[in-house]
Amino acid sequence: MLQNKWIKAIVWIIGFIVLMMILLKLDRLCLRYFGFSMPYAWIGGAFAIILLICAKRATSQGLKLAFIYIAIVPICVVISEGVFYYKIQNKKDILIQPHKILGYALAPAVSEKGKLIVDDKVIYDIVYTHNENALRLTPNNNTNSRTCLNIYGGSFVYGAGVGDSDTITAYLQKNLSQYNVKNFGISAAGAHQMLARLEFDLDSKELGQCDENIFIYEAIPHHIYRAKGVLKGPKYENINGEIIYQGTFSDEEQAVFWRKDDDIEKNKIIENKPRQSFIQRMASTLKKTKDQLAESYTREYFFPLIKPSLKSKNLLEGDMYEDGFFANVDRIKLDITQDDIYFDIIRQANKIIKEKYNAKLYVIYWDYDMHAQFLDKYDEVVQTTLKNDGIPFYTISEIIGDDYKEDLERVKNGDFEHFKYRISRWDTHPNALANEKIAEFIATQIKNGTIKPSRLHNPNTTHDDPNKKGQE
Question: How many domains does one find in the chain?
Fold first, then answer.
């Protein structure tokens, strides 16, 4: 009798394990084909069904009620995972909003916490704040001044990974307190966003406050790719010599930049992949199971700031970390010339700045930028073209000097842990020190007259009514 009980118990345990493996396999298939994964809902549902079957077969009323009451717990798990999955998936990024011209833009008058933890080490723990006109906040800004320093760019200008007081505009304000310093940076943006904002007067609420202006564009090589559609944004084409806005890039246009020649590559991998032993397959399955069960939507919803630390091992398996540090991928190997649309966009932006604001565009260029895999691949064509076009520019190598070059040498030699001017290997945006150095350089150029503010031809009539336009 005892032996039969043990056999029955072992059969139940084995059956339970097999059931869990089947359920988790189904969950992975749902993730692959339908884009969602809720392992706790599958497991909870299975438990509930088993308990309800047991309740139906129970011989006594007390045992029947016990099974029913216990079944309530997994039923609640199923409901909570489903409800909070929906809530989390539909939760909006409050810092970003859709935009009919730009594709997306910053949201006005919001503040949000940003936190990155890798291997239980806090990389940054900061707050992003936007003003009422959807610009990254410049603390203690001299908003009464009508002499404005306007900086456009992507996440380097916006200040991804640094707090409000450590952005480039924050440091500029400290050095140039008489200026109204404006941060027009948007993460994942580039020269094409700058052009669209200037062309369609999207920043008229802010620029309408200015009688004198300095315009600076902080460029990184990846902006070349962005102007061609690697990320969501305004699309421009050169049509018979005219730089014409063509709406925003579609998902299909963006996908070209992320494809890995996968059909060929994956087939080769499958063909050449050695046959795994049973133990290897089990180890792989257990790892997938562990990864699946690491997340709970219920826990994530109620404790969003107590998320488990990211693991460096997992990050390094991702496309963005192919080189050992965060870098935008280089899939299609562009061959860039001075006639590229990216340079057409900069020329057109410079033209608009001259016509509308009687000013010129200055460029800060991140040469040898490890934020993308191609590093210094486009440095020569960028600098040569800017020089030929008569657009004044300064390189980060020039601005920071030997320290920056030493940082680059460490990267070339495989040292990804000792950056002086980057946040971390896990986030290669400029850190506070880099922003401070660049701001000091710009301030020096302004104070010595190399970079000069330009006065509007007619300050009273140049701008459209700011109440009719702005960040739509």
Answer: 2
3-state DSSP helix/strand/coil percent for the chain, to nearest 5?
A: 45, 15, 35
The first and second tokens of residue 173, run together, are 């304000």
Same domain, yes or no: 49 and 155? no
Asked whether residue 134 falls in the same domain as residue 42, the answer is: no
- CA dist 390 and 406 (Å) reads 30
CA 46 to CA 74: how far, in whole Å? 8
- Phi, psi dihedrals of residue 362, rounded to the nearest 5°: -110, 145
Q: Are residues 185 and 240 in the same domain?
A: yes
> 149 and 186 in one domain?
yes
Examine residue 180 and state whether it is found in any structural domain, yes or no. yes
Say which CATH number the domain at 162 has: 3.40.50.1110
What gap in Å lies between CA 407 and CA 418, rounded to an integer? 8
Looking at the structure, tell me whether residues 347 and 440 fall in a common domain: yes
Structure token digits, residue 380:
């020569």
Q: pLDDT digit of tens for each residue in the chain (472 aa)?
A: 446 767 776 777 787 777 777 877 777 777 667 666 777 787 888 888 888 888 888 888 888 888 888 889 888 888 887 787 777 666 657 899 999 999 999 999 999 999 999 998 999 999 999 999 999 999 999 999 999 999 999 999 999 999 999 999 999 999 999 999 999 999 999 999 999 999 999 999 999 999 999 999 999 999 999 999 999 999 999 999 999 999 999 999 998 888 765 444 444 444 455 666 767 666 766 666 666 566 665 656 555 544 557 889 889 988 899 889 999 988 887 889 999 999 999 999 999 999 999 999 999 999 988 888 877 889 999 999 999 999 999 999 999 998 888 888 888 888 998 889 999 999 999 999 999 999 999 999 999 999 999 999 876 654 544 334 444 4
